[in-house]
Every structure is written in structure tokens, then in C-alpha cells.
Amino acid sequence: MTAIVEAKSVSKSYGGVHALRDVTFTAHRGQVNVVVGENGAGKSTLMKILSGAEQPTSGEILLDGEPVVLASPRDAQARGIGIIHQELSLFPNLSIAENMFAGRELRRGRRFVDAARQKHKAGEVLARLGQHGLDPRKDVGELPIGQQQLVEIGRALLEDVRVLIMDEPTSALSNHEVDVLFEVMADLRRQDVTVIYISHKLDEFRRIGDWVTVLRDGRLVAHESMSRTDTAWIVRQMVGRDPDSLYVRNGSPVGETLLAVRGLTVPGTVPVHDVSLTVRAGEVVGIYGLMGAGRTELVECLMGMRRAAAGQVLVRGRAEDKGTVQSRMAAGLALVPEDRQRDGLVQTMSVRDNILLATVARFTRAGLLSGGAEQRAAEAKVRELAIRSPGLAAGVTALSGGNQQKVVLARALLTEPVVLLLDEPTRGIDVGAKAQIAALMAELAARGFGVLFISSELAEVIAMADRVLVMARGRITAEFTADTVTEEALVSASASESVLEALP
Amino acid sequence: MLRRTLIAVGAASVLALSACGGSSDKSDSGSTPAASKLIVIITPSPDNVFFKAEQEAADAQAKKLGYETLVLSHDDDPTKQSQEIDTAISRKAAAIILDNAGADASVAAIQRAKDAKIPTFLIDREINKTGVAVAQIVSNNAQGAGLGGTEFAKLMGNKGEYAELTGKATDTNAGVRSQGYHGVLDQYPDLKMVAQQSANWDQAEALQKTQTILQAHPNIKGIIAGNDTMALGAFAAVQAAKKNIVVVGFDGSPDVVSSILKDGIKATVLQPASKIAEMAVDQADAYVKNGKADQPEKQSIDCVLVNPDNAKSVTNFAVAGS
Amino acid sequence: MTDTHVREASTAAAPEPGAPRGRALARAALLLLRGRTLVVLVILILFFGAVSSEYLTQSNLILMTKHVAINAILAIGVTFVILTGGIDLSVGSIAGLASMVAGGLLFKGLGVPGGTVFFSAAVVIVIGIAVGALVGAVNGIVITRFKVAPFIATLGMLYVARGLAQLHSNGGTYPDLAGTPARGNTGFHFIGVDSVLGIPVAVWIMILVAIAAIVVTTRTPFGRRIFAVGGNERAAILAGIRVNRIKIAVYVISGACAALAGLLLTSELGAAYPDTATTYELNAIAAAVLGGTALSGGRGTIIGTVMGAFVIGFLSDGLVLVGVSTFWQSVVKGAVIVFAVITEQAQQRLQSGLARRTA
Predict the structure, then answer these.
(1) Which PANTHER family match (chain B) (predicted)?
(2) Closest chain C residue to B44 measured between Cα atoms?
(3) Fewer CB under 10 Å: which end of chain B, C or N?
(4) Which of A39-48, A180-189, A388-397, C83-92 comes out lowest in average pLDDT?
(5) Is CATH 1.10.150.170 the right assignment for the domain spanning B35-139+273-301?
(6) Which residue of C has its CA nearest to A328?
């Protein structure tokens, strides 16, 4: 039971933001060490430091009890620490063997790649992972996600890895693939490989983990042998506070049905199957689910960014059959997207232009933009949402994450929606801004809007939503009211394969 | 509103474009692969009327002698020319008539044709190697430039400032003509060249460069250009500046000839393009029939000066009675 | 090497002692970089003015501006496209095609059943511009509907339009565009040759096009949307912007501007030939880039592009004026363009650096 990797009093700050504060973390040799925490708790930062991708602002790393400096991922790899990222970093157009040796090809002579030896070694590693039948010459792009994940692991194993860090490796895997992965992890443990395993999925990591470490807001709050914990204890550690003190619960009276979705089916790599739901005036509805459950695809389809294969969308009782962004916007829907940088902000534009982007045509006189009217409208929204910025003319990238989120929200509100769709509205913003966004959502509901939001944070969805729908594998698998919802129920429903038969 | 405008615009443009159709038919028929009856004619872009005349004369003469023809343009790109010569080889042409794309860059391709037993007859431009092509029939650019230079000096009254527009520096004729001009002009101490610029044989570039040169040297009395398109560009600049400046070109193109008749451009040097092209085809025909050349490889055909005195008798790169 | 990350992070977090002065210097440098096109232009004018006494004469300045006009109009059109994150390589060929269409209509008229119709010069100009707009629309449709990368689509159009221009006259030149009173088609020389109030008509046209483009890009919703599409296309879609329409529109604008430039060139020359404006697309793109338009889209100004065209034009003409050989002209022009892009990068770095410190 010796420690192999330790982080001693490690802190990390980016600019003024503290991602890690004085964390002392121990990974036990030959065991599966689980690290859990909400988004933004500092898990990824800690892993980046342990894998050499980032340097700690203060504190030190011990390997086998000796202080070491991990200058780069390559350096860490040379010392036997490998990492598998959540997003696979494979080349789909190259073969398994080529992927495993990418960047460190075996040579024959000085210039030529020794393809035969690469293939042979790749085959050995695949066998170690229980994939005896898999041909190393096959293109990675042709493999299912689970096997791709194994190729990533194989890549790390090739380096004679002693410590393997896995960042949410199961988020895109089917149940069967998860089983295979866990067998591989058990094998690795027998081969004296230490695993550091980051996960969200309570039910899963309890099956495999030996130790559990909980991070919250950049601090290490608990480190315990898995056998001495239970799910409820872990959730308490993760949330760490009375959720109601942070989030404002909406309690306004519910009015007419504003949004009704019937049997919506959206094809794609992450499909949505036969989803029905309603959102009424004055109501905050949460959708809980894991990544890849089809939540984003659902709201994008509602907003007209994806085409539905079947189903109907009604806004204020009127069927909206024309599935374009313009028509849905005109009907009264507005979406605050999950990925602000990719789908929300125009990074080259100012704060003002970003706020007014969707409604710019309103601020014209004789076809020309009226600077005064634009300025007034933008100023009003900045005041209303308490957006902190160096000025309306400042570039939007100069704002903090929370304020950027409010800019996108301001743009959505200016379109005068009746139902506001928010996809992970609090992702990647600090706790203060989270509370503000939550308060805004409650306030909007009180003013008669319908609010539909997506969240993968248990505490948040429980605290904020009047009604919670759970999505898994493209279907709605459960529905709870604020009174009946519990963490355990959400977790089990989000992993469920069965579809909710009848809505109450 | 927008849609209606678009439709109107579309209709008008399609109508305008359809005017293309009128004269674009040229029989490039390659239906019968009768190897010995095909003459491949390769020239620079027929954009320039000179090459167009050359092309048409060779084409007409070959057809008259009972050959099929394949007319191609290499646009002064040696790579394209090389591919076109490969086409001629693969079609087993009886002969190639070529106005080449570079004195050195063309040698290898012509050698390839020779190795494939296809004789090449060069027209208008020489290459820097003998024994590869069967004939190199060119107008005597040096002699022609001498004629042009002499006429230019005479028009200038043997004194005053002048500017020279030279052709593309990679083209042999650009150098030969410039040297020919200077062989004459440099003998007059009172004739002073105040600017020399390359306008790359291009009309618009000649226009703009002449305008700028006239700014720098307002006392210029004459402009001598390495070819007629540049002379036309220079003359447009002179006209716009409302100046009385002697412009002399080289080629004898119809546009310049008509300008001479209207007392615009003063003189040009006519290269007997049609005559050279016809000679090349005749010699190719003789070679095909007898299996050997009946003329020496290097043949130089004298150029003719065109000025208001004889401009009326010039048609399509030929002076009547010459 | 090990702790570079740390140091970078700490400088961004807390200003070092003496930072205010450093910041003031950085601000001054930024101002200079933002106005770099103007700075370069002033340096050029001072330099050539010192070398040649003719450079700064009124007539030469007017002439150089007239030469600039053609490239500036092309570059303004291209700027619209680049702002959306696209590129238009076909503008030179569109200019050539428009000149041939106009030249053909003036020189030989339009053959219709039962005779030949001649249009007045004004109508010919409108038709010429319409041809350019139509070709631009084809570019836009190929790019949006068939999802062809703009580089490839307009590269293809570069060849297609040039080929059509050559087909139009079977490779020949339309030598005389003066028209005859009997045909009622005189006056084409007005746009390229004549002057109004001592300023060439071509320059007036450039000024009008520039003003219109400035108003469209900065004062209309359409202009704002162009910037949004170039800045972040996905965000623009979500903001309800009809991205494909915007894209088609900018290629139409680019095509129309190219055609107009081609007509000006042809009018000045008094002749239309199929190789008109060959490789002019490169000068136009260079002017836009010199003027600070980011090839990645979303960033740039019309006035910058016009200044860029002035730099290129004043530089080329200056070199001709002092008698520098053609080869050196190419070398110098290329060096200036690369230098401009380097300073553009420096400006971006400095700007984001300052923004981070003030935030």
C-alpha cells in the first residue's frame, strides 16, 4: 500500500483564477484511484499537472517518494506516467499500429518506418488488452468508440506505463464496452499498473475503484478507501453545502403550456428518440443526463439547427413545422448554447455587437444602423444582467466566462422569447456567476417565461428545477418534481436503458 | 424585389454571354487517326492577333495540301508546350509546326519529337540549338528592329528624349529587338533614352507604365515599343495626355496598321507571319513526301517597314506585292 | 525552459513594476501598428518625393490615384468576401470577362434574330456589371449549396471566366470601343478617360464605391452580419442569420466590383482583350491584407483596404517613375506585403496582451 505518485500542497492559478488550492493528493501503487468532483472542481487541472501538461504555481510532485519536475507530457511519459484524455486524440485515417506509434515511430535505418515491427508490437499490446482478434492494420476510424479507447490505452501501455491516468473514459461507451474496459483495468492492476480514474458516474466507479478522492472548488475535501464510503457520502462531499443556499429556487405559479414537444426523433451520431415534453409559463424545467445522452441534440433541434426525422414542436399551441432557426426564433424560442466559444460568441466583435447580433435589424433608421439606439439597447441589457465589462466597445473576449455567458443570454433575451433554452448555462463559470445565472433563470420564470435548461450537475439541477427530466441514450427515462427528486434517483435514471413509460 | 432584379440581371447577362457563340467554331476534329496526315500547329495564345494570323495561315495551308490539323496554344508556358508535343507524338503526327515557348526550355521537347521520328518546323522564334528541329524559319528580328529604329530616329529628327517599352525579359525576341533598336538609336548622340521599362507584352501594363513615365519625363518626344500591343497601350496613354509623341511598334498588327492610317501610331515593322507559317507547312509537306529537308535549317525572312506610305496595302500580316 | 509557463502566467496576472510605462509604450506601438498602412503610405510618399521631383506633382498624384482606382475597386469587392472568411480568386478573370462582354457589345453589337442590336454605352456598362454579379452569384451558390471550399470554387471560376472571355472573341481583341453616333453607342471612354472637376471619373467612381462599401459594412445590419459570419459562423447561424444568403451576396458584390474595375480598365485602354486584368486578383487580395483584413474573416475595414491599394499603387508607380527594373519592382512589392502581414500579427498579439492586462 505504498504511494507511487504524490502531489504535495499543489496550487495552480490561471491569471487571477485559482484552479487548485493547496491540494495534497496520493495515488496508491497498483490500485485504482478514483478522483471525483463537479465540473470546475479542479480534476482536469490536477491531472494536467500530474501528466506534465501544466506546471504547478506552487507545490511539488513526488514520484516514488522523490521530488520530480514533469516538464512536458513527453517527460512524464518517459517516467512512466501516461494519460488518456476524454476526447480521443487518435488519427481516424491511420491504422491501429500507426496510431500507437504516432510521433515515435520505430525506425529501420534513419529514415524508414519499421512497419512490420510496429505491427507486431501493436498486436502484442492488443492481446494484453484482451483484443486478440483485432488486426493492427485496421484503420482506427472503422472501430467502435470502445475499441478506439482501448487503442489509446494501448498507446500508453507501449511506453511501459506505471501510472495510467484516465479522464472520464466511459462517457461515450456502451455498457458492454464499459465492462470490457473494467476488465482491462483489473488486468492492469494485476500487472502492478496504477490507475488514476476520473469519473462522474457514481455507480460505475464504485464497481472498480479502490480509493476515492473528492475535489471541490479547487480543494481536496476527502480521500477515503472506497469500501468505507457510500454513494450518498460521496455526493455530500462533492456538493459540500446546502444546495439551496447557492441556488434560488423558482416557485412562481405555473401558467399555460408554452412549449410542447411530441415524439421528436433526431437522427445522427448521437440520436434523439421519440422525445415528448412540455414547458409551461413560469416553470423552470431541468434536463439531467450524461454527456452523449442527446440533450444538446434535442435543444439544437428545437432551435432549428438540426432537422427532425419525426415529431412535432408546438410553441404557444401553434405547430412550428418550419424547422429553421429564423422561424423558431420568430415563434419565441431562444437558445443559449453549451459551448459559448464555439456556438455563442463572435470573438472578433465587441460586447455591444455580440449582444445585438440577433436583433440588429431593429436598430435602424432609413435602413442605416442608429448608433444611439444600439447603444441604449445594449446598455439596458448590460444593466439588467449586471454584465461587468471594460465597456460596450471592448472585445467580448476581454470578459470573464460568466460575463461572456451573460452576453449570450442578453442576446437571447433581446429576441423576446417565450421559452428560453439553456444548455449547461453554468459550465465553466465561477460559483458567484453560477448563482447569478440561477437567480436570473428564476426571475425569468417569475416574469412568465418558460425556462428549459440542461445540466450535468446533480446539485444544480436538483436545486433549480421545478421539474427534472432525465435523458439517457436519446430518450427521456424519468421525470421528477422538485419534491420527489433525489441524487440517487437521478443517477440511476441517467444510466438506465429503460424508457419512461407513462408521464404522470 | 431582390428576386426580380436578379432575374433581370440574369437574363441580360445570359443574352450578352450568348454573343460568344458567334465565331467560336474551329474544327479541331481528330476523328480519323490516320497518322501520316496530321499536322500539329502549336503557337502562343491567339490572344495576340499576330499569333492568330500565324495559326490561321498554317492551318489553311495545311488543309489546302490535304492534311488534317490540330491547332494548340501553349500560352508561353513551356510545360504546357511539352505536354502538347507529347500529344502530337502520341497521335503520330506527320509534322509539328511550332512557335515555341522558350529558346532553351523547348529543346528537350522538340528532341523528344525527333526521337519519335516526328519533324518539327519552328516558326517566328528560334531555339538555342541546331540539329533538333528540321527548320527554324524566323523573321529577321534584328533586321526588322534596325528598320524600326531607323524610322523612329528619322521621325524624331535624330534628337530628343524617348522611352522604350521592352517585352517579357524571358523572350529572346524582346532582347533581339531592343538590341536592334539601340544598334541604330545609340549612334545619334542627341537621342536620349530617359526611361526603359518592361511592360511584358501587355497592353494595359504598357498604358499604365507609359502614363507614369510621361509624369517623370514630360519632355519625351517618342516611345519605341517591342511589339504592337505595347505600342497600342502606349498610344492610348499619349492620347489621354493629349501629347504629340511619336509611337513606333513592331509586328504589323491590323490594329496598329489602322492606327497608322489614322495618323496615330507612326510606324511598325511587319513580320511576315502568314508567309513564314505557309513556308513552314510547305517544307513540312516536302519533308513528308521526300523524307528529307529541301532547305537549310536556319532561314531568316526579312521584315518590312509599315508607315503611312504603304499601310493601305497591308492585310493580315502581309504586304500586298511583297 | 521548465518554468516558462509559470512566468508567463505570472506576468499576465500581476503587472511588474514599471508596467505603466511599458503599457503606455505598448499602447503607442499599437496605435502605430493600427495605422501602419497610413504610416507606410506616408513613408512611401516622403521617400519617392525626395528621390523624384515629379512624384509629388499634382498631375502625378492624380495619375497614381487613377491607377489605384482599379485595384481599389477590385480589392473592396474582395474585402467583402474575405470578411466572411472566404476568398475570391476569380476577380481578375471576371474583370476580363466583363470587359470582353462590354467590348463585344460596343464593337460588334448583339446578334439577334433579324439583325444586330447596339446598346448605349450606359446600358453596356450596366450589362457588364450584371455579368460580373451573375458570375459572383454562381461562385456563391457553388460555395453554399454544393459546399465547395471558396478557394477551390473561385479558383475554378478563375479558369472558367477567363476561358469564356477568350471564347467571346475567339481569342481576339476588340480594338475600337469608341462607338458611332449612328449606333448611338458612343461615350464609353467617359468612365476611363474623362475627368470631372479635374479629377478622373475613375477616381470619382472609386470614391463612390468606397463610401457605399463603408456605409454598408459599418452602418447596416447586412454589414454587421458579414462580420458575424466571418467571426464565428456557428454563432451567426444560432443568432438567426441566414449565412448562405450573406455569403452569396458578398460574392455577388465581389463580382460586380470586379466587372466595374474591368470596365474602367477597358474604357481607359479603348480596347478589350481577353487577358485583361490577368493576375489582378493577387493585387486585390494583397491590398486587402495590407489594409488589415484578416484572411480568417471577421476583421477588417474598407478604408484599410483602400489604403492598402494606395500603398501598392503608389509603390509600383514610384518604382517605375524612378526607373527601377521590373524584377526589383516584384521583389519590393512582395516584401512589403509580407512585412504587412508580420505587423498584423504583431498588432494582434499586442492587442490581446493589452486586453488581458486591463481585464
Answers:
(1) D-ALLOSE-BINDING PERIPLASMIC PROTEIN-RELATED
(2) C171
(3) N
(4) A39-48
(5) no
(6) C240
